[in-house]
């Protein structure tokens, strides 16, 4: 088996049963905010644009590069579809011209003739664009797990598919938190340190769970070359920056005793077989390390090459082409009318403030109106052009367009509330209906485990991670390593968000003892 790294989460996997192109990303994404890092524009696409199979892990723009797929990739490629709960992903790829699909079933092995694959799909409303996925691939020579952005909550099927020769794992930030929040500098830095530490701890946990012979940090970070966003790049020396790069991640892993990580850049080739691996970089070691060791100068040179494309895209953004309040009311009022669980979960109002208009998404009265000074617990300050763009396109996932751009600011009264962002991920009737079914079917926890003197529900209330694997208890606080959510065992209260509770009962409770 031969794997060529294409940058970010892009892989070209050549097996005895055919080739698989995974998540190729080459153009600025999220309103021209994100750019692939390191620069992959010089790769010769002729070697990987006619694959036998195409796999796109999920619909975020740094994985589904619509322009590259439309213009460069052969439409004869058979698309390996993850087992997502809506057909948005399939329709997006069909709209680009792909016409042959093979539908996988979650955690079930599929034999494609000479190559076996398994997809592990996540389907919670908070998972990417209502779906994220990983891909395991095996032929007669090697087995690899392409985890990309996914955060599996069950490893039984994944581990049974192994053992693995290589594991490609995400480690860096793909979020706007805490950078976009209007907070005191010290508080924002403290949040960033916690977020960075959690990202590294989660990646290390994933590496240990998969237990491959070698792992390769990838699927991030992007770089930010628009001057307005350049400060988001991690240039070293700031331990609160969540966009740490591959080199930093590997150094951290080594400091934790995890020694089997390898660095890659666009064009790096990994050859697997006979229980051995060979890594070949596209240039001398100094050239390979330069994006990481001479980073600011490298990014400034990169910026000079890319800025014209960024400015050209910004010039296309709309300017007062729609009546925002009216358009959003016509679009969102019907969604709010059926969003019982979402409205109850938000239990408040959300303000969308542009330069010249204030719009309220009222989850109490279930309507969108122009603001008359209502109290709004959640507030977003967004350039009008971005709101207009999403509105004109009827963009069903504002998380995958507006929020990931980092071109906004936010405030909130009280803790994080995931129902707010789940609403903005689900701006179509099929998505809203799926989210409502998901919450309706969650029900009461039935599986319990014991830790810290308590019987605790096995699945994390956030994203159903297996707490027997990812939970740790210290001083009466349970922490889920998947996303760093914390719960007070004595009360079940979530210390991270106000919309979740953990079912836990003291083992000293006579009712528990009697039922044991």
Q: Quickly give the structural class.
A: alpha+beta
Instruction: Please count the beta strands (DSSP E, at least 2 residues each).
Output: 25
Give the overall pLDDT as a whole number.
91
How many helix segments? 14
Describe the sheet with the most strands. Answer: 8 strands, mixed
Q: Portion of residues in helices?
A: 25-40%
Indicate the proportion of strand residues. 15-25%
N-to-C CA distance: 51 Å
Low-confidence stretches: 510-516
Give the SSE map:
Layout: E1 2-7, E2 10-15, E3 18-22, E4 53-55, H1 66-72, E5 78-81, H2 88-95, E6 101-103, E7 110-111, E8 116-122, E9 132-138, E10 143-148, H3 156-161, E11 166-170, H4 185-210, E12 214-218, H5 246-255, E13 269-273, E14 276-280, H6 285-293, H7 295-314, H8 324-338, H9 340-346, E15 349-353, E16 358-362, E17 367-370, E18 378-381, H10 384-392, E19 409-412, H11 418-425, H12 429-442, E20 448-451, E21 454-457, H13 467-470, E22 471-474, E23 477-480, E24 485-488, E25 504-506, H14 510-515
Parallel strand pairs: 3-4, 4-5, 5-6, 10-11, 11-12, 15-18
Antiparallel strand pairs: 1-2, 1-13, 2-3, 7-8, 8-9, 9-10, 13-14, 15-16, 16-17, 18-19, 20-21, 21-25, 22-23, 23-24
């Amino acid at each position: 088996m031969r794997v060529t790294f294409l940058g970010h989460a892009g892989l070209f996997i050549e097996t005895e049963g055919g080739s698989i192109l995974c998540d190729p990303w080459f153009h600025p994404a999220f309103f021209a905010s994100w750019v692939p890092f390191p620069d992959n524009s010089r790769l010769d696409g002729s070697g990987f644009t006619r694959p036998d199979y195409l796999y796109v892990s999920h619909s975020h723009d740094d994985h589904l590069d619509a322009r590259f797929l439309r213009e460069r990739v052969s439409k004869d490629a058979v698309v390996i579809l993850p087992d997502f709960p809506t057909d948005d992903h399939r329709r997006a790829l069909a709209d680009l011209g792909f016409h042959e699909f093979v539908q996988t079933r979650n955690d079930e092995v599929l034999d494609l003739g000479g190559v076996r694959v398994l997809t592990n799909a996540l389907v919670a409303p908070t998972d990417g664009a209502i779906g994220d996925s990983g891909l395991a691939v095996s032929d007669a020579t090697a087995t690899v797990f392409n985890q990309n952005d996914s955060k599996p909550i069950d490893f039984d099927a994944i581990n049974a598919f192994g053992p693995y020769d290589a594991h490609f794992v995400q480690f860096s930030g793909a979020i706007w938190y805490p950078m976009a929040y209007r907070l005191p500098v010290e508080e924002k830095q403290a949040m960033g340190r916690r977020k960075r530490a959690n990202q590294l701890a989660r990646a290390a946990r994933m590496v240990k769970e998969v237990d491959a012979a070698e792992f390769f940090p990838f699927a991030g970070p992007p770089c930010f070359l628009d001057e307005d966003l350049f400060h988001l790049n991690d240039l070293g020396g700031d331990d609160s920056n969540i966009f740490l790069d591959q080199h930093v991640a590997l150094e951290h892993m080594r400091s934790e005793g995890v020694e089997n990580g390898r660095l890659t850049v666009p064009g790096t080739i990994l050859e697997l077989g006979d229980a051995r691996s060979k890594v070949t970089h596209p240039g001398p070691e100094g050239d390979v390390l330069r994006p990481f060791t001479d980073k600011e100068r490298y990014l400034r040179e990169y910026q000079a090459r890319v800025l014209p494309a960024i400015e050209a895209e910004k010039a296309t953004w709309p300017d007062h082409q729609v009546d925002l309040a009216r358009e959003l009311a016509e679009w969102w009022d019907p969604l709010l009318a059926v969003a019982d669980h979402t409205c109850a979960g938000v239990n408040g109002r959300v303000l969308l403030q542009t330069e010249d208009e204030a719009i309220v998404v009222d989850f109490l009265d279930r309507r969108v109106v122009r603001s008359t000074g209502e109290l709004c617990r959640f507030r977003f300050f967004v350039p009008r052009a971005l709101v207009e763009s999403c509105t004109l396109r009827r963009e069903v996932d504002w998380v995958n367009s507006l929020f990931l751009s980092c071109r906004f600011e936010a405030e909130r009264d009280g803790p994080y509330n995931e129902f707010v962002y789940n609403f903005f991920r689900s701006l179509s009737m099929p998505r809203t209906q799926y989210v409502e079914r998901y919450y309706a079917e969650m029900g009461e926890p039935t599986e319990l485990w014991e830790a810290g003197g308590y019987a605790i529900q096995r699945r994390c209330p956030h994203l159903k991670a297996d707490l027997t694997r990812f939970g740790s208890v210290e001083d009466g606080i349970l922490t889920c390593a998947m996303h760093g959510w914390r719960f007070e065992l004595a009360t079940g209260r979530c210390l991270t968000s106000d919309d979740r509770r953990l079912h836990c009962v003291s083992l000293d409770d006579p009712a528990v003892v009697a039922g044991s």
